[in-house]
Specification:
By secondary structure, the chain is α+β, with helices and mostly antiparallel strands. It has two helices and four strands; from the N terminus they run αββββα. The chain is globular, with a radius of gyration of 17 Å. The termini are far apart.
Length: 112
Amino acid sequence: MKGTRLPTLAAVLKDARTRWTEHRVGGWSGGTERVVEITSGTAVWYHTGLPPVPVRWVLVCDPVEEFKPQALLSTNLENAAVEMLEWFVRRWQVEVTFEEARAHLGMETQRQ
């Protein structure tokens, strides 16, 4: 649980020594396939007064820089980085659908 503090994810993002892996992800915005670069690792998330929590982190970058880098986190260390990326893309599709339904039907607003 104790050791040298790991670099922040922002520092990992900027570090020239970071090893990135290219992946093709289907179902991106508009159902297109997109090439992204990812890197992953594990860390311990600690907050004073709470027990430490092991996490797997994944940084996702767009090689053509059309979207900002994003970090994905999971408390299940068994999850592969590519799985986490695919789940994120699927989840985003569901979130967009819910947002469009709310806008169209006036759900979760005062117009209900």
